[in-house]
Design a protein that fits this description.
The chain has 74 residues and is mostly helical. It has a domain at 16-57. It has two helices and no strands. It has helices at 3-35, 42-66. Helix 1 packs across helix 2 (42-66). The longest helix is centred in the first third of the chain and has 33 residues, at 3-35. The protein is elongated, with a radius of gyration of 17 Å.
């Protein structure tokens, strides 16, 4: 992977963070009675999303490195 493509993938992840936090807030609000949690706002959702991303990112990176990549024919 080239440095330029890695840079653009990193920039594309930025907006996805905010979308992920928003979706977490919506789903937590919709299922709070069934799950047994208090509904929380967007800022709390952003903190939880940061924690999830920091926890899952090393695992995703390790899994991506362990799987063989497909070589293109070109």
């Amino acid at each position: 992977m080239s440095v330029v493509s890695a840079f653009f993938k990193l920039i594309a992840a930025g907006p996805m963070f905010f979308v992920s936090a928003w979706l977490l807030m919506l789903f937590a609000g919709a299922t709070h009675a069934d799950v047994g949690i208090a509904p929380f706002g967007y800022l709390t959702s952003m903190v939880v999303t940061i924690g999830l991303w920091l926890t899952l990112a090393p695992a995703v990176g390790a899994a991506a490195k362990s799987t063989p990549s497909k070589k293109s024919a070109s």
